[in-house]
Structure formats: structure tokens, C-alpha cells
Amino acid sequence: MSDPGTPGISVVICAYTEDRWADVLAAVASVRAQSRPALETLLVVDHNQALLDRLAKEYKDPPDGAVVRVLANAGPRGLSAGRNTGIAASRGDVVAFLDDDAVAERDWLKHFAEGYADPRVMAVGGRTEPVWASGRRPGWFPEEFDWVVGCSYRGLPRGRARVRNVLGGNASFRREAFDAAGGFATGIGRDGNKRPLGGEETELCIRLSRARPDAVLLIDDRAVIHHRVPAARERFRYFRTRTYAEGLSKALVARSVGADKGLESERRYTTRVLPAGVVRGLRDALLARPGGAGRAGAIVAGVLTAAGGYLVGSVRARRGGVTFSVVDVGEGGGRD
Is the pTM of this model over 0.85? Predict the structure, then answer.
């Protein structure tokens, strides 16, 4: 274990497909290039033996002596179980998570570490910038909905600020957080099916705040990663599918932690941030600026689709059609 003032950070990257081979290598390389070195990088492979074998061969003998460990997801298929596998095997005082199709800026871990100087801080998240496959943001795509493509969105606080929850693809947690609250719940987020679910990090953060009422969760927008957005996710069809899936996911989160906390941030977002976005889009349309009407329409469509998903998800939850569970990963099986 490291000095509490300079916590050792384990970085977990979950991978599932060889289609992202180059992205995974780039993600690992960005961790190895950090100004504040990671204690280790754990690559957790989600039930894909060919990818597991290929990555194990690739990182058998890292040339710079960096510690890169390749592991198989020890739980059910899905992102939550993969992250839990990484947590259990990690040795750091802090566990950071990086998406397999993202690269971190050089000072990413440095800014995370600074947040943990306060012993009350249990989690620190960062800012995720989109890298559009087409080279530029689609004119109709509102910044308020960048969470659709796994990125930070308009409405999040700037600088370093206290938040209800961090965003899972660019986040870190003190190990004590998992000791107190357990790991990521399986059955809420992505589980290998085609529907792009999410929300597992929100549920964990709310559960953590309940287990540790004194816990502080921060977002620091200097901790930046760049997340690739493939062409298929630049289309309205994906936008509609993802917003609907978010509604389904929020219904599960509300079922786990209650609607008061589960939808606390979403109420402000839908009553303040999104109406302002619609007004901004309509204003741009009146001024003949490109994309204004499309952005306003997309915001309205996103709200309605997410609301529909939430209603469907709530009915399913009441009928017992969905289940999820929280596993104990706090012991840190990989520690010395």
C-alpha cells in the first residue's frame, strides 16, 4: 500500500471485442504515458477467449517495465462484472476506470490523485471529450446530450466541484468506497446485449453516499480523456435508442436507491438545462445558424424517448421482470 498522501492508482480497462484492438492498445499506451505513473494497468476481458489470449501475448513483457495485467471477467457477462473483477484484483489505494475506446491526457491521473488529498473524498471523476468519427459534431446533435455517446455534457459543473455521481468511463474511487458500499451492481448497465444500457455508476455513487454520509464525490474537469465516437453513434437512430435505454436504466436505479436520490440530478437537468438548450436552438434557427432547429428538436425527442423508457422500465421493475445484484469486492483480492 502507498503513503496516504500519494495514493497508488490502479487503472482498470474493460475490453470485450477484437474490433477495438487498436483502441485498446491506445488506451493502455495513454496510461503508460502518464505524468504520474499508474501502479498497474488491469485489462479485463469480457468472455472473449481469443481477445484474452491476444492481449496476454501482447503484454507478456512490456518494454518499459510497466505493469500490465490481463484478466478474464470472473463474473457474468457485462461491464459491471468486468469492473468488479478489476477492483478485486487491483492493488492500488485508488482504482481508476478508463473506457477501452478512449485515451487519457498526460496529467489525467495527476489530477485524480490531487483530489484524494482530502481524506473525505471517496471518488473523483473527470471530463470526457468526444472524438467524432466524421471529424466534427453533427449539426443536429445537442451538447446537452453528449452523455448519449459516453461524454461529458452541457450542464455539468465546471472546474472541481462536488457531485452526486461520477461518470463511469472516466472515474476513480478510493478503495474504501468499495469496502463500504460493495461493487458495481450487475443487471443495471451493459451486459453484452445490443441495448446500450447504463447507470451503474450512478447507482453505486448513491449507495456509497448512503453507506458513508460524510463521503465527498468530486468532478475535476482538468482530468480529461478523449472518447472515440464511431459513425454509427452519430446517427439519430442511435440517439433515440440510447435515450430510451437510459430511461430503462434510470428506472432500475430508482428501484435500487429510491426515486428521490435516483432522479435528483435528472430533475434539475430536465427543468433547467434542457429548456435552456431548446431556447438556444430555436434562437439559432431564427438567426439562420445551421443546426439550431435540429438541436431543439433532438432535445425534445430525447426527453420524450427517455421518459418512455423510464415508464416501461418502471412497469417491468414492479412486475419483477428485472433483477440485479451487488457483489462484495472490497477486500481487494489482488493486494499484497
Answer: yes
